[in-house]
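Q: Two folds, back to back.
A: First:
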Amino acid sequence: MASSSFLSSTSSSCFRFNPLLFSTKRHRSTLSLSRSRRFFAINAEADSRGIFNSPQVAKSFDFTNEERIYKWWESQGYFKPNIVKGSDPFVVPMPPPNVTGSLHMGHAMFVTLEDIMIRYNRMKGRPTLWLPGTDHAGIATQLVVERMLAAEGVKRTDLGRDKFTERVWEWKQKYGGTITNQIKRLGASCDWTRERFTLDEQLSRAVVEAFIRLHEKGLIYQGSYMVNWSPNLQTAVSDLEVEYSEEPGTLYYIKYRVAGGSKSDFLTIATTRPETLFGDTAVAVNPQDERYAKYIGKQAIVPLTFGRHVPIISDKYVDKDFGTGVLKISPGHDHNDYLLARKLGLPILNVMNKDGTLNEVAGLYAGLDRFEARKKLWSDLEETGLAVKKEAHTSRVPRSQRGGEIIEPLVSKQWFVSMEPLAERALEAVSKGELTIMPERFEKIYNHWLSNIKDWCISRQLWWGHRIPVWYVSGVDCEEEYIVARSSREALAKAQEKYGKNVEIFQDPDVLDTWFSSSLWPFSTLGWPDESAEDFKRFYPTSVLETGHDILFFWVARMVMMGIEFTGTVPFSTVYLHGLIRDSQGRKMSKTLGNVIDPLDTIAEYGTDALRFTLALGTAGQDLNLSTERLTSNKAFTNKLWNAGKFILRNLPRQDDTPAWEALRAHKFDKVESVLKLPLPECWVVSKLHVLVDDVTASYDKFFFGDIGREIYDFFWSDFADWYIEASKARLYHSGDHSVASVSQAALLYIFENILKLLHPFMPFVTEELWQALPSRGEALIVSAWPPTSLPRNIDSIKKFENLQALTRAIRNVRAEYAVEPAKLISAYVVANPDVIQYISGEKEVLALLSRLDLGNVNFAESPPGDANQSVHIVAGEGLEAYLPLSDMVDISAEVQRLSKRLVKMQAEYDGLMARLSSSSFVEKAPEDIVRGAREKAAEAEEKLTLTRNRLNFLKSKVLIAN
């Protein structure tokens, strides 16, 4: 049965029927039977497909139905762009997740936000394309397959490069689609027919073309420079693949004797990595440090190196307050030392092999693992008297994001891209307004990074990825001669032309950094370098790139640079950056902390819509704390929508009642005159809806998703469910006039249809299922037209209904204060000026229903009643008051007795608290939080005591007057 009880703003329960609020049970059984028949007729088509359920037969929205709905959308081709000649397409390139990946909350965030953008623009009628794909993830994928092989007792070196890559492709075919299927589970309405993998033939061709064009312009070069080195993987890794963590370690203090000096002439250095001392090429002090001024220009003897001398230099780079103020300079093993050495012209010594063991430069320590060497070195320093001390020290340790090992700064021969010329044009794109970054504050970070950019190491010593398109000629110096070509055939032809027919060539063994291919993603997926490709002509440049702010530099900025370089156009007009998903305490999610929340588990418990709505309520660029409380609340929101649909469907005319449907459809809400003719509640709610449509549409266009979610939530829950649905029952159940009921039926259907449209981008599944249950729904909600803006609204009706709401709230507050039973109907005497009386009395049935008043004893007048002193007087607003007879609500004498007893008990509790607080031993000796808590309890008790005393005095005065 439909409910007539008031739904509080915090309630998530179904609409409940309270027979005590009705004076009649007119035709209820007939309505129930006719509604059931109508439902089955309306939903016959959907039921036959086995796709959709309805609130008429299902108690709540069934999350397990989401996958069926998704497959139906996809089968109908709704995810493909509807190409209209001359129209403005809306295109979003998906940040391609790693092929090794499984769904985490970061994926859930970007999928939710991008799908919101796509669904909104699709409903707006724009040709809408969301480009999906996956990244080959060089390091991550190679690690996964190597571990799989290790379980079989096989190493990749045992297989060789070709066999190993075959095994990787086999793994990819078997497991590589996991992340794609999980993304679909989130409701991602991508055009999966255009899905791309970064190692697909066309994308691989684009990568080679990009390398060649950059090389031809002199922007790609080869050289030996400092990189992040992974000893286990034996490859360079990007800055993004290095994570720094604060970890406990040791600071070692070591004596460096001054050459030619006495035993007392030595410098003590403090270092966290003593094993790198074999690579020292100088000892540095701050020029303003008077302690060491006399040693500047002299030589220091590096310990345990059989007397190797290095200069003692001065440089302001040295922090005289760290450690001893003396710094060992190891340019081959520290990024800062490397830069200092290049500035000062110091030699660079490498003491480490690619596998993390020390090399021959370390003398007797050669062959030892770096950490084993550290232990032995310290022991030997202690024996020789060169060890001063060691102490606990917290260090910022660089670890591999993939393997977890400590990364080694190492000078290595690699391929690099000169970034400065590319960065200059990317900076101009923002300054000229060709590219908008949201939130705006990230523009400063973007500009700072590009203005201080370093050359990009793009080579990786892996077997899985895009092989560097460079070939060397056997017997020719690789440092001086190499061939850049699009294929081995082209490379051989070039070599033969220069060196003769019998030449032999071999390809560079390295592959390109995964980020290199990813930076080509927006345009290579659309057909570049074939710029005549239909997709490229139609959809490039793309509209929005949405991604996490943590990869602004490593991916977003590089895409901007590459897009401008190769297409002459910024690859997207807007970059929208979201924050990180954190736990309820604001901590970053990690397996170590055990606070990782699995999106698929969350979907199983709360539903996809609740998860999406929760994630979308964040602020652009800000981290979001995810809690079960938020998810539970938004699951309740899903149920509330479902129950609203249940109520509306049960209160529409029978399908075969042609006159009723003609009357319902005759009500129009898009013309000023039609809105002005509506009764007050309908005029109010329709006006509020039209204001909402304008506000929400503007927020969608500005990407203010948090505002959108909150605005729709507040309107639906408060205005529509808590107020209008309740008010409509006065017409649906009490009017006795089908024409009066018709306007409420029309308004309910109109408002609900538009709520579903506004909310669909956020909560696609429940809104589509509800849409399919509605009569005359037309096409699927996913491709239905967005509500038009600038529809008529009556501001005066909004103010009038707000007065009615204020009066209702005031009456409800009094009922609550006097603990009036919910089912009990009371009298009311409303006092107002004639204009207010006219529209309030016109909605007498609504007021009575919402406030639980006795309809026959609701009176309106311009002055107070004669027995006003026996009533509770309430002021709802300026010029609007009411008097509620006390005798209707409580037995005054009994209430006086009850409150008197309660007052005695409350006074005793208060006196006890005050006695405790007046005790100096308690205040001085008890913990501060205990004392503070006691004071707060005392203040609260005093407030309740005052309120109870005032109410008791008020009731006593009424008893005296009555006597």
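A: Second:
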Amino acid sequence: MVEIVFLLTANFASGAKEDISPVSDTPSVPSPPSTPVEVVAKTKDEREFPNDPTTEAEVIASIEEYYFRDDTFDSSKYELEKIPDLLDQIQLSTIDEDRNRLRRQLQAVTKKMSDVILENQASYSKELRRVTELQECLENASIICRDGRSELHTSMQGFTVASLGIMAKHKKKLQLLNLLKSLHTIKTLQRTDIRLREMLEEEDYPGAIQLCLECQSAVVTFRHYSCISELSSKLQDTLEMIEEQLDKALAKTCTDFDIKHYEKLQAAYRLLGKTETAMDQLHMHFTSSIHNIAFQIVLGYVQLVTGSTDSRFQKMQFKDLCSHVDLETYIPCLADLCKALWEVMKSYYKTMDWHQKQSMIDENTSSEEADGEDSIGSSINMLYIKQKLEHGLTRIWQDVQQKVKLYLQATDLSSVKYDDFIYVLDLVNRLIDIGKEFCGSASEGLHESIRTQSLSYFKNYHNSRMEELRMFMENEGWEVCPVKSNFTVLNLHEFRFLRPTSNTKDSQVPNSPSSPTLGSVRGFFEKFSEKGSPFDKQLEDDNEETGILNGPSDEGMGFDDSDDEDEVPEELKQDFIDEQTGEGPQRGRFGKKKNMETMYSKGPTLCNTTIKVLRLYGKYMQMISVLKPIAFDVVLCMSELFDYYLFSIYSFFASDVSDGAALGLNSKLWTTLKRISDNISQQLKSSGTMANPMQVPENTGFPRVSPIVQLSGIDHIHGLAERIVGTESLVFLAEQLEFLQPHLEAVIPSSKKPFLLQFYSQTVSVASELRRPVYRGVASRSINLERIPQMMMTVRWDIKDIMSQHSMYVDHMLQIFYEFNTRLEGVSRRVRIPAEAYKIIWEHVIKLANRNMVEGFSNAKKCSNEGRALMQLDFQQFLQKLESITQLRPIPDKEFVEAYIKAFYLNEVDMENWVKEHKEYTAKQLTGLINCAVATKRTRNRILNVIEEFEKSRPR
């Protein structure tokens, strides 16, 4: 390759030397060199190869890579090193072939370079002309410079020494004037220190900084004076002192925000160019203020209780310090803590509000000025402050929440009073509402804290109330508590939040009786922006509470809010007084003065314990509003109260009677009672459940009826008055729970509503079913009809003549009913007998009488048609007299006796079908009928076999 380049260089050099001419002043354009084709033609020999473009490209491509590596490559040496030391004929031939190959490559490269030079010949000519033009321009510039130097020399010769002296003196004068001005300025700078301190005392921070910056600028101007260096250092110290005072003043805005004061601070930081730094410092001060304020408030109460200023308290962690707060000062400390933290949050809120308004003003100003660079810088600064403030909302609230959370968790509140605990929760709920308005936080930490405290408190509170209820039940005399005829839970003070007001027509579960309704119209920060706080003691409702006691005046007769209040005024402990007439109950038999519906349609029958339970329900529902996280637990405890009351009423007034199934305990009521009984067994950690829920377990925590309550004795119908009060109180309690059902459904989670529906359907709804076992048991034990079947055995039923006079046993049975009715009237003077109770009692008494009559008829050995007529006469006489005793219409269960008497008239064929259809009679009664009415022995035996099979299949 070197040989190729050498040959090309030699060719071009020889051509160029022929055209070079001597250099002259006027440049000449050299003629272009001879073309490479001509050069190649001159060096061409007999071994020249033909030109072929395709072959030439292949030849160029076949050149070895070593030829292109660098300029120092020695191609001759490279080719010579290939020749071996000993040569033979074959190797000579190979060398000749390599020589031809190299010549062919040289010819191709030469041809290629010649072509490239020809293509660029026009550019070469053009560039040569430009060089010529540049040379002409340089000659013109040389002429101009020579003329300028000549003129300058002439000017120098024209000035005199005098004129130069005048100019020197004038210059000196100007220098002296500048010196005088500088001295005045230096004198002023030395006096600025006093003025700066005065401005700092006046809190004129922008003016002080402006003055200090101007002085610093002047110091920089006069820094060449030696007296200025000390002044410069002093001004720098003063500026740092101003920044320190600014930082202290900025920290004060965290607890007491003042717009004018804050505007001065922001103007000062703007002069310093540290608005972003000021914002960072402000957030640090807010965090520090929250910690310091919380610690100092709690420390103050701890020292107040301990009566000492022990330094160990000051070194404690906040969490440990909170555990030393006494329960007596717990609520005041919490209130003050919330108020102080509220002030911090309010200051932050006002800070944000000021920056938002200032941002709007700055945007309007920047849009009017339309200064590009300054406008962009201002926008970036405003954006940074806005983002910093928005992010700081959550951080500030988390710090506040953490302090209150630690305070709540440090003390066990399970033993505090109900009103105090409600107030604590009320304060925390207000703080949660503030947090939601402040930054939209859900306050999970506070919710978890109050949930933990609420569970602990409510568990203890509920256990205390259950024990208190047991005490009430054991001391209850089951006397009627005189209340208004329209009394409901809405008359109780605890349910005042459910009463419709002039503003709202629909009742709804409130947040709390004392919880603020702030935020519904105006937010906390708007309402209390100037004075007050959401944690100030709320005033009690001044509205007069509706009285619940019956009488001409309710004044002084209402129940107060204390848990231990259970007494009724003595003047109200009297017989039932009609509200309309003011008269006592009418004497005489039922129905002779007033009909049954009028006599037994007055107000509810309930006792003091029922009112106590209703009040507990009211308090529990109030607690739900502030114990939202454990709302379902509260509702569950409300159901336990009702279960306790239901089973207590049953154990007092129904468990002392005979078989419950015979007294009307349906399967639903039986299941409910058994479930409650099983729960009692589980509480006792018993391995098995009770086989019979009719038996009240020993030592279960369930109450025993008071010894003063007499539930036996025929004179007062085995405590019918007390049983009525207890049972009807339970029914009234169930009715009030039905009224409260929508409110309870509204406060519990949707996933828990099936439990509530089950409670109402399986427990509350069966409360009225307890009337039957209670009243039927009383009826069974209060009337003795055992002699009736014996007296009927003395009656002859095979008489031949139709009797016009009824049998004596009918009069005896009616006399028993007259006496029973008289005792009922005596009970009615003590307590109003509800229509339901009256109906159940008489229905069961009449049913017992009918069963005894049928039992007496079944004892007949023989019976004629005249005897059957006597049976009908006796029964009709009984019905007729019974209608004058009781007001029940129609007389119940009379079909039972009438169907049995009519069966005596049936023939043998119809008798068998009748027996199969009437399974309500006992086997003895059916057997007596068949033996008396069926004469054919074969038919009698067949029917008796049917009765026997039926008796075997009858459920036991």
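Q: And?
A: The first helix runs from residue 2 to 19.
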